[in-house]
TrEMBL record:
Domain ABC transporter: 24-261
Transmembrane residue ranges: none
InterPro entries: AAA+_ATPase, ABC_transporter-like_ATP-bd, P-loop_NTPase
Record GO terms (molecular function): ATP binding
Phylogenetic placement of the source organism: Bacteria, Pseudomonadati, Pseudomonadota, Betaproteobacteria, Burkholderiales
One Pfam family, short name: ABC_tran
Record-linked SUPFAM superfamilies: P-loop containing nucleoside triphosphate hydrolases
Name assigned to this protein: ATP-binding cassette domain-containing protein
Keyword annotations of the record: ATP-binding, Cell membrane, Membrane, Nucleotide-binding, Transport
Amino acid sequence: MSEQESTCGPGTGELTLDGSVPVVEITGLWTKYGRTVVHQDLNLEIEQGEIMSIVGGSGTGKTTLVRQMLGLERPARGCVRVFGEDISAIDSDQLQQLRNHWGMLFQQGALYSALTVFENIAQPMRELQVLPEDLIHDAVLLKMNMVGMGPDQANKMPSDLSGGMVKRVALARALALEPKLLFLDEPTAGLDPDLSEAFVTLIKSLHRELGLTVVMVTHDLDTLFALSTRIAVLAEKHVIALGPLRDVLKVDHPFIKEFFLGDRGRRALEALDEKTPTEH
Ligand SMILES: Nc1ncnc2c1ncn2[C@@H]1O[C@H](COP(=O)(O)OP(=O)(O)OP(=O)(O)O)[C@@H](O)[C@H]1O
C-alpha cells in the first residue's frame, strides 16, 4: 500500500448536486500521523439537507475529518467523496468548482480585519472574477439581510463589531456563493448564551430556507442539540454511534454517557425538552 491511497474507484467527473448521491460519503478511511492511527476504517455518509454534527473526545480526529472533506488533507487510505467526486483525485479546476458549492464558518480567522463588512462578504464573489459590481453590491446586501444586518452596517470594520455580529458577517460570507454545503466549526464558541441562541436560530432558519446540508463540529451541547438532525460520535478511531440524538443517547459507551448524560448534558437536554418536547 502506498502512503496515501484513495480507494474510491472512478467517478463521473461531474459534481452531483441534486441529492441523488450522498453529499459526503466516507468509506474505509484511515488517517495516520507517523505511527499514530487517528481513524481506522471509518465510514460516514451525509445526505442532502442534514445537519450532521461530529462529536468526540479531544484528539479523536473531528477537525481532521472535516479537513479531509475539504480536500485540505488526504487520508492514508480510503475514500472521501463530496458531491459524488473523489476529493483526492479531482484536479484544481474541479476543486475550485467544489469550493464554490460549499461555505465554511471557522472558529478563528473569520474575517479580514482590514476589510469592511461589505468587502468581507463580497470577497468570495470577487474571486470568481465574473460577477459585475452592481450584482455583487445587491448580493452582499441580500446576504447581510439574510443574517439580520441592515445596509447601515456595510462600511463598519470588523473591530467595530460585537462577537455575535462578527459571526453573522462570517456566516454571510460563507453563504456568499449560495453554497449547498456549509461547514461550521464551533459556530457558537465565544458567544454568550443569548447571542449563541440567536445564532442557532439564525442557522436553523437559513438551513430550512436554503435547503442547506450542514456539517458541524461543536462541543457546545445546546448548539448540538438544537441543530443536529443526526450526530456522529467518534471514538476508538471510528464512528461508534450515528443517528438522531435520541438514538445516540441509547448507545452504551463511556464517552456517550460522560458527554451527553453528565451534568451539562442533562441540563441541555432539559432545556431542549422545554423548548421542543416532541422534536427529538
Ligand atoms: N498535521 C498533523 N500532524 C501530526 N498529527 C496531527 C496532525 N493533525 C492532527 N494530528 C493529530 O491527530 C489527532 C486528531 O486531531 P484533531 O485535531 O483532528 O482532533 P479533534 O477531535 O478535532 O480534537 P479537538 O476536539 O481537541 O479539537 C490528534 O492526536 C492530533 O495531535
